[in-house]
Amino acid sequence: MSVFAAERTVAINAVLRASEVCQKVFKQLVSTETITKKDKTPVTIADFSAQAVVNTILYKSFPNDPIVGEEDSGDLRGDTGKEIRERILSLTNSVLDEPLDEEKLLDAIDRGSYPGGSQGRMWTLDPIDGTKGFLRGEQFAVCLALIVGGNVQLGVMGCPNLPVDFNAPEGERGCLFIAEKGQGAFQRNFSSTEETKIHVSDVSSVSEASFCESVEAAHSSHDDSAQIASLLGMTKPSLRMDSQCKYCSVSRGDADIYLRLPTRADYEENIWDHASGSILIQETGGEISDINGKPLDWSLGRTLKANKGIVATNSKIHSKVIEACNKHFNK
Ligand SMILES: Nc1ncnc2c1ncn2[C@@H]1O[C@H](COP(=O)(O)O)[C@@H](OP(=O)(O)O)[C@H]1O
Ligand SMILES: [Mg+2]
Ligand SMILES: [Mg+2]
Ligand SMILES: [Mg+2]
């Protein structure tokens, strides 16, 4: 029986509303609506607005739950932030039942500042994962997960540009993925409330497997993945895609492996970049770890500081892929 039925319903509503914001912006984004953050990565009015929408909806049902969210309102305050703040406010209010004022908007965004840790309940939110994909008109995802005592219990992901059927890439787009611990995982199209149970592929011969990875070589090394693929005798070209849509692809069997291989020794993966994807993989019969085969540790704060990279696959081939990673990185 579902333990988090109420959370599931609220999370689905929040992710769908935030996805709506992204779709609206997508059709009319202008260059002044994108900011470059201190770490040189982009953020748009849609990222801020999606975070405000999700945090507002979560707060209404679960006022005591802290949120580890990617964005903060720093760049939106004061005179310099006025124009962008006004755009975000009107966007946010266009999908909320009760309108916010400017102060409430900034407060809602900053409710995502929780430092994380091993105790109690918390949500983690990536309002747009794959902002670079979003800006290119390619894949991105609104990603929300519930973590309890350091364990991911629920993940909901909205993928507005993902084809509902991998084999019909020109067909309908827009899918929602829902996974709850012990309950399996489901795909729902944006146009319907019907849920279809999904599962990973059953490929057991790794040489026949296909893998997906980031479009951005700065996020995951394409050179290392090509060498690991060759070690495994894999010949299919990699499926390059932005965002946690990669987890969705593996979870419904479009690809068999998701490789995320560190490009910098000092980089720590953010929990919001992987929490919803990790439970989706586990609940569809897959396996996920870091590149050394270590389980992901969600209890250490806002990042996965005890882990390096990510390997997510169907369960049959996980150990073989980890073996190849070991061989490659420890040569
Ligand atoms: N050097 C790096 N290594 C790995 N991930 C990185 C990175 N720099 C940024 N990222 C993360 O990569 C995410 C996108 O992943 P992908 O390449 O799979 O689409 C970004 O999420 P956002 O787009 O939410 O900022 C960001 O958090
Ligand atoms: Mg970002
Ligand atoms: Mg992200
Ligand atoms: Mg993001």
Automatic annotation (TrEMBL):
Belongs to the inositol monophosphatase superfamily. It comes from the Eukaryota. Pfam families: Inositol_P (PF00459). Gene3D superfamilies: 3.40.190.80, Fructose-1,6-Bisphosphatase, subunit A, domain 1 (3.30.540.10). Keywords: Hydrolase, Magnesium, Metal-binding. NCBIfam families: bisphos_HAL2. It is an enzyme of class 3 (hydrolase). It catalyses: 3'-phosphoadenylyl sulfate + H2O = adenosine 5'-phosphosulfate + phosphate; adenosine 3',5'-bisphosphate + H2O = AMP + phosphate; adenosine 2',5'-bisphosphate + H2O = AMP + phosphate. Its cofactor is Mg(2+). This is 3'(2'),5'-bisphosphate nucleotidase. Its EC number is 3.1.3.7. One of its GO terms (biological process) is phosphatidylinositol phosphate biosynthetic process.
